[in-house]
Amino acid sequence: MKAAAGAIIMASIMAVLMLSSNASYVNIVEPANYTVYQGGTVYFGKVGPGQTFTVTISTTTASNQGTLVQRGWNQLVVQGIPQGWIAANSSLNNQYESVQITPAPEARGTYQFNLTAVNTQNYSKLGSVTFMGVVNVTTDVFKMQVSPVNISTGPGEPARISVVINNTGVSDSPFIITATGLPALNMTEEVIALHGTSGTFSYPIYESEPGVYPAQLEVSSEQSPLVYERANITLTIQASLLNDYQAVGQGALTFPVIYEPVYAIMYIIGSVFHY
User: Fold this and answer.
1) Comparing 9-18, 78-87, 192-201, 215-224, which segment has the lowest mean pLDDT?
2) Which conformational region is residue 72 in: left (phi greater than 0), alpha (psi within -120 to 50 degrees), or beta?
């Protein structure tokens, strides 16, 4: 009796596994790789309030008989987004289909919504696959490192700061690098560190008058001013021949090309004495 019951249970399990292996699925390729079936749930990661992120799927899937179907999914549709959010469904009939989702600026916490892969008019007899997407909306979506934090240069001579941005979120929204607290107006630079990657950027900073200037270097999200990090820096401006030599490697040549060897020697001298 027990053996018969065990055989029935095993047969039921095998039937479920066979059904799952043959059922249509959705291959998600961005913001990370997932394979999901009807009714599944996918946690995409972190996104900043007001930051747009993209969900992209491959249109290849399988029929209920296990046959591979190229471009079986003709569109990806977003449904049930929270109030105040913005979403755009994918275009039609591409090799990959992408939706864009933007959380409300005031959103905080964990949210869910539905995504549906559609086989137009059920042409390939795939029906549709609906699954749940989950994201965590937070301002903590990147880390920043700045080097050096103590910079010395001459009046009006640019010094360069290395800025490392580690994007731990799922948005590819640009970042803005700025320097604040200096009398001189320094440039604002837009950079891109793709989701799940680190980017290193060289940011020039300068001041025109001698002195010691405590300042801040800020990195913020272009789409969300609430997403930012700051680092304290100190810029020392002093007029000296050594600073002029060091600045040769930072600036542009304004004299004839025949003086390039002299510039090189000047920069080497400045670098040696600087360290």
Assistant:
1) 9-18
2) alpha
User: Can you list the domains of the chain with their CATH numbers?
Assistant: 23-137 (2.60.40.60), 142-239 (2.60.40.10)
pLDDT in tens, 14-39: 333 333 444 899 999 999 999 999 99
pLDDT tens digits for 121-160? Answer: 998 899 999 999 999 999 999 999 999 999 999 999 999 9
Q: Contact at 8 Å (CB) between 103 and 47?
A: yes
Burial of 183 (0-12, 13-18, 19+ CB in 10 A): exposed
- The residue to which tokens 């001189």 are assigned: 184
Tokens of 252: 């542009």
Residue with tokens 């929204």: 173
Distance, CA of 89 to CA of 27 (rounded, Å): 17
Query: How far lies 228's CA from each of 81, 85, 98, 132, 175, in Å?
Result: 26, 21, 27, 29, 9
What's the whole-model pTM score? Answer: 0.76
Q: Is 141 exposed, middle or buried (0-12, 13-18, 19+ CB in 10 A)?
A: buried
Residue 174 pairs in a beta bridge with none
